[in-house]
Amino acid sequence: MNRVIKFFSFCLFVYLFTNEEGQAARIGELVDTDPWEQIKRFFSFSDRGLQLSLIGAVLFGAVCGLIGSFIVVRKMALFGDAVSHAVLPGVAIGFMWGMEKDPLAILIGATIAGLFGSVLVQAIVRSSRIKQDAALGIVLASFFAFGLCLIRIIQNHEGASRISGLKSYLFGDVAVIDRSDLIIMAIVVVVTVLLFCILYRPFLIISFDRQFAYSLGIPVRFLDAVFQMFLAAAIVISLQAVGVVLVSAMLIIPAATAYLLVDRMSRMIFMAMTLGIMSAALGVFFSFLGSNLPTGPFMVISSSLLFLLAYLFSPNNGRLTKWFKFISLKAKVRDENLLKLLYNYLETHSEAREGIEILISDIANLKKHNQKNMVSDLKRLQKNGAVELVDGKVSLTKEGLSLASTVVRNHRLWELYLTNEADYAADHVHDDAEKVEHLLSEEKVKELELFLDYPELDPHGKPIPGRVNS
Amino acid sequence: MSFYKIFISPWENHLSAYWPIFAMAFFVTAACGLVGNYLVLRRISLVGDAISHSVLPGIVIAFIVADSRSSLPMFIGALVAGVLTTLLIEMIHSRSKIKQDAAIGITFTTMFAIGVILVSLYGADTDLDLDCVLFGKLDFIASKEKVFLGLPQIVITMGSVLLIIALLIVLFYKELLVSSFDPNFAATVGIKPRFVHYCLMCFLSIVVVSAFSAVGAILVIAMLILPAATAYLLTDKLWLMMLLSIVHSLISAFFGVHITVAFQVSTAPATVVAGMILFLIAWIFSPNHGLLRYFTNSFDLSTFQKEN
Amino acid sequence: MSTESQKCPALEIHDLIVSYQKKPVLYGVDLAVPEGSMVGVVGPNGAGKSTLIKTVMGLVSHAHGWVKVFGGELRDSIKRVGYVPQRESVDWDFPVSVMDVVLMGCYGRSGLIKRPGKMEKEKAMQALVKVGLEAYSKRQISNLSGGQQQRVFLARALAQESDLYLMDEPFAGVDAATEVAIVDLLGQIRDQGKTLIVVHHDLATAREYFDMILLLNMRVVGFGKTNEVFNSELLQKTYGGRLTVLSEIAGEVAKQER
After folding, report:
1. Chain B residue closest to C165 (CA)?
2. Is the pLDDT of residue A464 over 90?
3. What is the domain range of residue C74?
4. What does the pLDDT read at residue A8?
5. More reliable by pLDDT, B144 or B238
6. Beta bridge mates, C67
7. Over chain A, what is the mean pLDDT?
8. pLDDT tens readout for residues C140-150
9. pLDDT in tens, A261-316
């Protein structure tokens, strides 16, 4: 958390001391330039408007990640969506206050509207038979519709030119962010981060187990209200850049990505803030390349791309990671099964020892395998040093023998365990052991051996080879 | 603003101009509301929200590819996008630890973002713009060529959609009822709940797409849920609930047009605001499930518990 | 019933493995329930009792093994199977009356689209009389007590006229008098030659209610006539802790099989 605060204060410092009241160039006005030129300009960071946009992106990206983490673990994602739509009439009323874009009035108006929306959802759910999902949908759409009506009324009164500032609240335009916006954003971010540093534990407990939080005497209802207020505030400061319609995505997606990647709340929050900043900055970058495009959708798509990467490659749960694990396990199972086959063959025909040669054709017949395939499988084993191939004959090496006897031991131990302890019928245990033999760790094997009192024979009367520790 | 200006003056002149707008608003709200009954009862209202957002890229791509506003490619595009969304949601939440709500949130915002970018990039070529996505084009209907009963083609189409949906619901009332109430049980009487679910999603896509040009992508959720939720507060019978949802559509369309005229706003959001007001009235005053009843009830209950 | 159907058991399960969220719930369950018996499924919490019922109904998918109902796939005889779910599984605010719910039991016999007619309504009414709820037929279902709601489900199952009933804790939240009445009713159904499999959490009453008992704890610990199975050794096995190694390893297996 401290790192985060330092980072923000640094950004703020850089901003306040480098900014001479420059005329912010609208991103949208940079039309038809060579994309390479644009990229160069982007990374030179010399453009005043770009600096403002990026600082804004960093600020709201971080606060969205922070609040979003709690939203995601509390399964409130769609609640966040409803509140984010509900702020629209507040924006319009805040605008009506002085009939100009006064960031403070808009912040207050929108926060109140968002809070009112969330209170209304809860009131409807608690007092009637309407369920949460329908209540969210009702509040979301009708507040939004009311906001649209108000904006139209303002437009009727003031003419379309004055309304241009308001339009950016719908789909987001990072270029309209100016210094006064940034100052308010910075204040909100600092207060939010501080608050969550102080109240981290109670919030964590409430998110994980409400009943337990009650029993500890934590003021759950009050903290819920505080949380909703900061949720509304986080939504409001992100509005200009992302827009009402898509701001919930900035809450949900970075946090969900972090949720995939790490498994501690504190790390998740940090990760979500980083990802939020990254997606916001990437969004600024993409919309900088194009012209006259709303920035919100680009930020959302950037964050979705990050999510996709995490979904596919997350070290623990990524789809592709899992797939690779699956493939490598399959290869391991295939090799081990072949070794086991050799072992069993040796056991029935002579003696399970290293160096005894077997005709490959015999093995292939046994498995009803094509000889060519069998040879190629065995060659792979030879590479691993488990077997030796000499003109049509195969023999186990020392390593091969020990590996094979481990697998066979696992198989027979498991059969014995199922038969003796779990009352399995003898005709069931083989199939199960075929799977389990590849998965037993040495630890589990020791446990089983101890449990079964170091057995010598499996239920079919065959010896259990190679004890791990005798 | 005086009473007169708000309540009376809108009805003093050229009412006939608003007839097609009113008819369209009613057809859209009623068709959405009928399907919405099942969304509310199955507690999947927000799937309606997700679908209505995510069909946007499908519609825009269909516009660009087919180079016209004819409804068939638009419908196909939207259906593809809708199916894709359901699949993505399913994929994310069944194949990772992400919960369903977050999976819905991730999927539909992403789809919608793609849609918005496409509209901004190609909108000019296809006479679609962001206003259309937000407000719909209900107000422009009046200027179209009248075909029947003073109604333009698009209104007639929407009316037929409403009729078809109503007919399907009457025909499959029993199947929809059982699979919504108790899907596990439905399977034991030979009704396939998954099949019914997908049929319902198909109905949903049809109404969302046909409503798109009139009310845009975001307000559809209100049309889907408000009538059903209001009716749900007022009755304990499913068939009556459906009937009431149509009545709700009728009244909200009427006052929607009124608000439009009185305040010079767009009809789609105005209809939603009118519908919301009706919902609030029902919520507060409902004889059995309302807010007032809730307060008196909780009072009754607490005294009752003390006596025991 | 023909001799053929008497040969094949009403419900047969072979080597069933079911896991939920990568943890095994049922592991290698073998079972053959003869027709015309009333089986109580007993076991500690988390033993997989409800899962067993749900797996038979195809509501939970299994990783391994098979289930046969009346000697064939469940699909082929699904209309002969009545399922009484746990009360919490449905939304009791749903805008339907008691009669509507019981009528749902008749939907299996009437075809698609066709509306329930007079005959169905009479049947539903008879079922309601049997469970003693005829006075409530017009009520909305949320206005019923827990025990009454349970009886509505029962009436619905009766209206279904099935040959095999699977009931998931039909006595949960039911007062003692109602419980006795329900058991009586179940006995009558059994006497008509139908098969009942009832999940029951109360060991004390299970002995008197059922003529067969299935002791379940992730695997079948004991299955047979009540007085044969109800001995302290088997009960000790059922309730005395779980096989930790088995459940851990089975978890590993489930993980690999996704």
Report:
1. B188
2. no
3. 3-256
4. 52
5. B238
6. C13
7. 79
8. 888 888 888 88
9. 888 888 899 999 999 999 998 888 887 776 667 788 889 999 999 999 998 888 87
Q: What is the pLDDT of residues C78-98, one digit of tens each?
A: 778 888 888 888 888 888 888
Q: Which two tokens stand for residue A139?
A: 């509040």
- Residue intervals of chain A classified under CATH 1.10.10.10 are 318-470
Q: Which of C70, C6, C92, C44 is nearest to C238 (CA)?
A: C44
Phi (first) and psi of residue A457, to 5 degrees = -125, 145
Write B67-74 long-range contacts (CB < 8 A, 24+). B67/B126, B69/B126, B69/B127, B69/B213, B71/B157, B71/B209, B71/B210, B74/B209, B74/B212
Reported pTM: 0.81
Span B103-109, average pLDDT: 90
Q: Which CATH architecture has domain A318-470?
A: Orthogonal Bundle (1.10)
Probe site for chain A from C16, C249, C253, C255 (most A CB atoms < 10 A): C249
Which chains share 3+ C-beta pairs under 8 angstroms with A?
B, C
> Which of A158-162, B211-215, B230-234, C205-209 comes out lowest in average pLDDT?
A158-162
d(CA B193, CA B176): 9
- Please tell me what DSSP assigns to residue B241: H
Is A136 in contact with B46 (CB distance < 8 Å)? yes
Overall domain count for chain C: 1
CB A195 within 8 A of CB A202: no
Residue B46: which of A78, A170, A259 has the nearest Cβ? A78
Q: Which CATH class is domain A2-314?
A: mainly alpha
**Helix B220-234 and helix B238-263, axial crossing angle in degrees, nearest 10:** 130
* Sign of the C-alpha dihedral computed for residues C107, C112, C115 and C120 taken in this order: negative
Residue of A128, A153, A253 with shortest CB distance to B233: A128
Distance CA B92, CA B100 (A): 8
Give B125's pLDDT tier (boundaries 50, 70, 90).
low
- Which candidate in C29, C92, C141, C252 is best for mutational testing of the A interface (most A CBs within 10 A)? C252
8 A C-beta contact, residue A257 and residue B95 = no
Backbone angles phi, psi at C19, to 5 degrees: -125, 150
User: For position C57, what pLDDT does the model report?
Assistant: 85
Is ipTM over 0.90? no
Q: Report all structural domains of chain B as residue ranges with CATH numbers, in order of start.
A: 3-307 (1.10.3470.10)
Q: Provide the 3-class DSSP secondary structure of residue C175.
A: coil
Nearest to A59 by CA among A226, A347, A281, A346: A281
Are B187 and C59 inside 8 Å of each other by CB?
A: yes
Within 13 Å and on the Cβ side, how many CA atoms surround B67? 0
Which residues of chain A form CATH 1.10.3470.10? 2-314
C192 shares contact with chain A (CB less than 8 Å): no
Q: What is the CATH number of the domain that holds C92?
A: 3.40.50.300
* CA A3-A282-A288 angle, 5° bins: 130
